[in-house]
Amino acid sequence: MSSPSVGVPVDGCLRLPAKTPLYQAGARGTVWRVLEGVMRLDQEGPAGPRLAGLLLPDDLVGCEVATMGRYGGTAWALVPSLLMPWTPGAGPAATEVMLQGLLRVQQRTGELLALRSGLAEQRVSRLILMLAGPEATELVLPTLNDMADINDLAMESVSRAMSRLRQLEALTPLPRRHRFALNRAALLRFA
User: What tens digit of pLDDT does each residue of 140-164 get?
Assistant: First the structure.
């Protein structure tokens, strides 16, 4: 599929609800820039889809289309996300944008590996801080099941870690579902 199965066009951009695919592996399409939210990239493995990356605001999604003509994996919105089509211009500026985006994704790969070691509270805290970026004070979090998959933990372990983080006021639930106020200093103590 080259276009999203469900999405709402917004001023030339695309708003995707959580759990909505942007594209499937092998499809033709365009490169996208994440404006808001988090996109998950999966690669097909012997046992089915496996996590290949998380794409955050300002990251480019689907860069492989520019060279291979097709998407190499499947991308979907982990939380509600806003994307805009990205058309590379000519010259060094476009190359710089693409290289900076690829560098960010490569650096995040190391961060993803760190999410799979340590105590559950450490892993969950690191994931929250990664998703929040350097400045956010509020965040829509993925489902417990998605967090468990990303962190390579049992869902019950993530649930206990989230409860502990709430007890210690590192996270404060807000009225909207899956939205939390962040106490960055408290989260950093666990990370």
Answer: 999 999 999 999 999 999 999 999 9
